[in-house]
Amino acid sequence: MAGVVESKLAELGLTLPDVVPPLASYQPAVRSGAYVYTSGQLPMMDGKLAVTGKVGAEVTPDEAKELARTCALNALAAVKSVAGDLDRIARVVKVVGFVASASDFTGQPAVINGASELLGEVLGDKGVHARSAVGVAVLPLDAPVEVEVQVELTEG
């Protein structure tokens, strides 16, 4: 039976994907005490990147914002893989977003809003978080965006 968070995802027309397998020597998420830290999540769908390139060049800011939503959804899947149940999320503590940016692109915060807005839509007040949005030269597999999430879990 789906919990409250997964029911909200379904209400939004979203499905929690399978956890994206690691591309190198790391785990998709680890738990330390009451916290779960995800590795950087790429906008993988069905095992591949739908779009590659730099934001502000090959990828539009609006496309990148949608890709950041996908990253956040992948992060929730990684959280569930170690927490067991997304309803255990007490709150999202921090989101860090990386945007592979053309040299003159400065709209990183608007791109990462895609991840932040998804977390708010799905988790309500529990999705409000601290955040960094960083422009970088290149990301793994030439991904336009990468997002990592840190959450605090409830007891139990």
Give the arrangement of secondary structure elements.
Elements: H1 4-11, E1 29-32, E2 35-38, E3 44-45, E4 48-49, H2 61-83, E5 89-100, H3 108-123, E6 130-136, E7 145-153
Decide which structural class fits the backbone. Answer: alpha+beta
* Count of strand segments: 7
- Straight-line distance between termini: 18 Å
Average pLDDT over all residues:
96
The major sheet is characterized as: 5 strands, mixed
Strand order of the largest sheet: 1-2-7-5-6
Strand content: 25-35%
Total helices: the number is: 3
Return Rg in Å.
Answer: 15 Å
Principal-axes shape call: globular
The level of helicity is 25-40%
Low-confidence stretches: none
Secondary-structure element string: HEEEEHEHEE
Describe this entry's structure for a reader.
The chain is an alpha+beta fold and 156 residues long. It contains three helices and seven strands; from the N terminus they run H-E-E-E-E-H-E-H-E-E. Strands 1-2-7-5-6 form a five-stranded mixed β-sheet, covered by helices on one side. Helix 2 packs across helix 3. The chain is globular and about 45 Å long.
Provide a concise account of the structure shown:
The protein is α+β, with helices and mostly antiparallel strands. The protein is built from three helices and seven strands; from the N terminus they run αββββαβαββ. It has helices spanning 4-11, 61-83, 108-123, and strands at 29-32, 35-38, 44-45, 48-49, 89-100, 130-136, 145-153.
List descriptors.
single chain; 156 residues; alpha+beta; 5-stranded mixed β-sheet; two-stranded antiparallel ribbon; 7 strands
